[in-house]
Amino acid sequence: MIQSSLSEFFDAPTLFYPEAEKDKIVIRYSGEKYLTDIPTLDDIVAGNDEGLTSNLNDALSSCEKIPFMAIDSEGSTEKIKGMYRYVLRLYGRLINGQKALVTLIGIQVFFDILVPDRETPDECEEKVSEILSGIVKSFKTEHIKAFPFRGYYVEKKPYLRIYTNSTGERKKAIIAV
Length: 177
Hints:
Layout: E1 2-3, H1 6-10, E2 14-16, E3 26-27, H2 41-47, H3 52-61, E4 68-80, E5 83-94, E6 99-105, E7 109-114, H4 121-132, E8 139-146, E9 157-164, H5 167-176
Antiparallel strand pairs: 1-2, 2-3, 4-5, 5-6, 7-9, 8-9
InterPro entries: RNaseH-like_sf
């Protein structure tokens, strides 16, 4: 084995096999910061803060709205106070560059079913309840009126709104109906 000249740059032993694997380099990470001259995001934020952190702290202390842009999200079902609840987590950054996590609890998971023209909402609810009773652990129905997504309609149409406890249960219910 030959030690690469990169090991001087990385300040750690960098090994490669000369014959069969000329382009492949094995780098061993020792937990040190190798690129000391390149600023991190925290360094950039600290250098360009211009009072943003104090503005953010003032807004938080006085319960004002603060700008937040989510760049990633994650949904899960968690047991909260003995009940399974849908939890949505939004990951992003604040105006001063700090990482932020916004957790939304209590979001109701639902889908809507258009009631056929020849049925009443009660008849449709009865049929749907029979189908879902053996498939979904718990669900709740509600009668609503809304405009369909496609087409032009002068009046709202009747829908059944089906609430479930999780996105997995909702998926099962949609497939069944």
